[in-house]
Amino acid sequence: MKKALKLGLLAMLVFALAVALVGCGGSEPAKEPAQEQAADPGASKLIVGSDTTFAPFEFADAATGKYIGFDVDLIEALCEEAGYELVFQSMSFDGLIPALQTSQIDAAISAMTITDKRKEVVNFSDTYYKSGLIVAVQAKNEDIKGFDELKGKKIAVQSGTTGAMEAEKVPEAKITYFTNTDQALLELKNGAVDAVINDYPVSAYFVQQGNEDVKLVGDILSAEEYGIAVPKDKPEVLEKLNGALKTLKENGKYAEIYKKWFGEEPK
């Protein structure tokens, strides 16, 4: 009797185990979402370098330390449109092109003017901003009224910029190079130099931030076009960014970002 009871219990246990196994087999579809997620690796990472001392294009928010600015908003929108996961990396301006050439970064957005010399070593996206150079002096300076009065003067510039290139054309100029524009403009405020040659929107923004002891003089020199720099060996990145930029200009997102930072419609 006990033996029969034991056999019966064993049979019930085997049956229950079989049912449990069938139940586990029935849970196989539950694994599909995880498999689908694994099959879809998501957005490819795009490492983008920028000199984050160039307000209002890219700079650190004083309250949060977060990088903000026109370029920052734009590259975030471009990456979202192009399907990239953005990895934003701060570095000095004169280190951006070397970083592109050595594949440390996949792109650079930093109010970088498209020039023939730069195009020899990197590719550029379509133009996303039109700018120009301007001279900044102390507000009390009545002698310098533009580029024509810079001969023999002390000029501060940011290394590797078109402002530095223009300063190097000035006869007998005494040029001081800095790693970022803020340092150059502070040197001007302190009276250590006579002038700063820099991109107009950046110098104008500096004055607007309460630096009334600095003024802009003369006409804006030449029309400069900013582009996103991309390594020569990454044509697919260039194609995607150009496609995304075109879309943002068509759907109004680009204009929205532009007006946020410059208070006017795109030029």
From TrEMBL:
A molecular function (GO) held by this record is: ligand-gated monoatomic ion channel activity
| Domain (Ionotropic glutamate receptor C-terminal): residue spans on this chain | 45-264
Keywords tagged on the record: Signal
Record flagged with keyword Signal = yes
Signal peptide positions are 1-20
Q: Which GO terms describe its cellular component?
A: cell envelope; membrane
Tree of life domain: Bacteria
Q: Does the keyword Signal apply?
A: yes
PROSITE patterns to which the protein is assigned, alphabetical:
PROKAR_LIPOPROTEIN, SBP_BACTERIAL_3
Residue span, Solute-binding protein family 3/N-terminal domain: 45-265
What subcellular compartments does it reside in? Cell envelope
The similarity annotation says:
Belongs to the bacterial solute-binding protein 3 family.
Know the name of this protein? Basic amino acid ABC transporter substrate-binding protein
